Amino acid sequence: MELYDSHCHLDPMRFGAELPDVLARARAVGVTRLTVIGTRAADSEAAAELAAREAGVVAAAGVHPNDVAEAEPDEWDRIVRLVESGRVAAVGETGLDWYRTTSPPDLQREWFDRHLRLAQRTSLPVVIHTRESIRDTLGAIREAARRGPLRAVLHSFTGTAEEAEEAIELGCHLGFAGMVTFRSSSALREVATRVPLDRLLIETDSPFLSPEPLRGKRNEPANVVHTARCLALARGEPLEAFAAATTANAKRVFGAE
Ligand SMILES: [Zn+2]
Q1: How far apart are the CA of 232 and the centre of ligand 1, in A?
Q2: Local structure of 187: helix, strand or coil
Q3: 149 CA from centroid of ligand 1 (Å)
Q4: Helix H segments across 85-133?
Q5: What's the pLDDT tens digit per position in 186-199?
Q6: What domains lie within the chain, and their CATH numbers?
Q7: Which of 63, 80, 106, 199 is the most exposed place for a label (fewest CB within 10 A)?
Q8: Ligand 1 geometric centre to CA of 159 (Å)
Q9: How far, in Å, is the centroid of ligand 1 from the Cα of 62?
Q10: Is 12 helix (H, G, I), strand (E, B) or coil?
């Protein structure tokens, strides 16, 4: 069985010297593929370096919507340079967050738009964070899609069935994280059972929000196994088939061999 953690943050600040062990633990349980996501220029560059030296790892470069107000003047140029260098497989993470308003909404919109245009210009997928902002996020995706082709991943999806349907109509892939395994998340599990299998991705969003039964601990890519098991069960699919399909989806989205 091969699993793909489609969204994790493995920057040296959070994992440091433990990183080789974290990767080894992931591979030991079949998590052989990772997309490591940047939230600032520095961790985007670190993600690209990790991807260059580790088999099965690709990187995404971007500035997280919660961080755009703190971005240094040269940070966007560093992201563009990295994306244009061909060393990353995706743009992001970007998006809109109306829950944490540490960054002013207009500034978030402007940065989101920049990332969308960069992804379209370079024909790379874009990884999108949306929190209490799904209407505005889908609106921005719709507008971008009018300009030209766009491949978008809505990561850690927590919307309704109707919102999922709308995103799927727009061509998006939906990523489900550990939250979907929580006892209290039966509505979200129900949404996940209705997503067409060819649009579904699984992720840990490490180091955040560990799945059941590991809630409260620092999350790491090996734990995507729990999310896979939970969703395969909810959807009534054999785990092996579910793993194979979600891995194939992520490989297709991120252009991994
Ligand atoms: Zn993330």
Answers
A1: 23
A2: helix
A3: 24
A4: 105-122
A5: 999 999 999 999 99
A6: 3-254 (3.20.20.140)
A7: 106
A8: 16
A9: 11
A10: helix
